[in-house]
């Protein structure tokens, strides 16, 4: 079995633990040791039968070349911050794929990718590092999903769609064939993307329209500690 630590101790982190438990039903592959979170109030707390082991300093006290980690937060900025901190400690990432997900063998999945229950990913799809594809979402042929993207539950992404780094696609949103969403943009819940969406904006509605522009990622306030 492979030892795993989940980065973060919020709701999504607990859901990812459940994913690992489901993946172990047929054969024991994953041994989840617990959660790491920089909130001192959580240290030692038991969640879903697993301990919050401590903050990132736990890894320095427990060096293990065979250990794997995975980000347990949905926020693209938080996922990137956690991934960068883990990489700085030379930690290795695993992927987490729910056994009920239907994934073509013609796929490229980056390190730290998470695909949850009920998702369907067809063919010639690329998922970048630390992408989260949440419950019952679908991704069509020839899509390229950039690193740190968050695809919330019930999203429908048609074929030939391109999503830049850090896109946050709201629950139940849809993107029609061949459209592009620029990096670090936010698409509102239930929106339908019928035209290309530029980078660093918030867009909502049917059809989806830009309502707000926001700073590039480099100027955002990115959390370096607790992940929710």
CATH class of the largest domain: Mainly Beta
Q: Order of strands across the widest beta sheet?
A: 7-10-13-16-19-22-24-25
Strand tally: 25
Q: What is the overall pLDDT average?
A: 94
Write up what this structure looks like.
Helices cover 14% and strands 31% of the residues. By secondary structure, the protein is of the alpha/beta class. It folds into 2 domains: 93 residues, Rossmann fold; 115 residues, UDP N-Acetylglucosamine Acyltransferase, domain 1. The strands form 4 sheets. An 8-stranded mixed sheet has the order 7-10-13-16-19-22-24-25, covered by helices on one side. The two termini are 27 Å apart. The C terminus is likely disordered.
Secondary-structure topology with pairs:
Blueprint: E1 2-7, H1 11-23, E2 30-36, E3 46-47, E4 50-54, H2 57-61, E5 68-71, H3 76-88, E6 92-93, E7 96-97, E8 102-103, E9 107-109, E10 114-115, E11 120-121, E12 125-127, E13 132-133, E14 138-139, E15 144-145, E16 150-151, E17 156-157, E18 162-163, E19 168-169, E20 174-175, E21 180-181, E22 186-187, E23 192-193, E24 201-204, E25 209-213
Parallel strand pairs: 1-2, 1-5, 2-4, 5-6, 7-10, 8-11, 9-12, 10-13, 11-14, 12-15, 13-16, 14-17, 15-18, 16-19, 17-20, 18-21, 19-22, 20-23, 22-24
Antiparallel strand pairs: 3-4, 24-25
